[in-house]
Each structure stands twice: as C-alpha cells, then as structure tokens.
Write a structure and sequence with these properties.
The protein has 116 residues and is mainly α. 63% of the residues lie in helices and 0% in strands. The protein is built from 6 helices and no strands.
Length: 116
Amino acid sequence: MTKKTSTPSTAPHLGSILASHIAKNKVSQASLARALGIAPTAIIGYKKAASMQTKTLWRISRLLKHNFFMDIALLLPDTFSSSTNIFEARDQEIETLKRRIEILEAEKAVLLESRR
C-alpha cells in the first residue's frame, strides 16, 4: 500500500481494509475464524465493521502475517510524527548508494578522459 496524496477526514473503514486483504489473498474465512476461535459469521461482521478493537486487529495481523496497522498508518500524512522511523535503515542505504553513484560517475569520467 502506498501513501495517499490526500488524507481522508474520517477514520479508515477497517472492515473494508480487512475485506480487501482477504479477497486479494484468497484467505479462507472459515480457517481464519477457526484460528481466531470464533464463528465464521464473526469474520463477515469484522469485514462490515467500520472499526474494531486493537487486540482483534493485532490477532488478525499476526495470523495473516500482514501489517494492517501499517496500512492504516500509510493513510496519514508524512508530516505526522512517530516515535520510530521504520524507514531509517532504508533511508541510510539510499544515501550510501547515492554517494557510491557519485563516486562511480566521477571514476567513469576520469576513465573516459584518460582514453582521449
């Protein structure tokens, strides 16, 4: 899921997010219900619900090995603060690669000059 350019003024519909993931990944609602220890009809209810308890979403995330919390977080603007920058390692790697590219381009220029 990627960042949205505009942030919805209302909370995201968690049931829709869950339903979309279940459909996209062909998750068996019956097996998910069994793993959660609930009736299969409860999954239908979750998919229709605008919100759900954090504990429930946490359990579903763990069972499906999908970070629904990140899906929600990506709907917020980049300007919002967070206690952790989960992209810090990636950002550092990007900066390192940019410096490496600059060095390689300089080396290439020197090699091309020396051939003349």
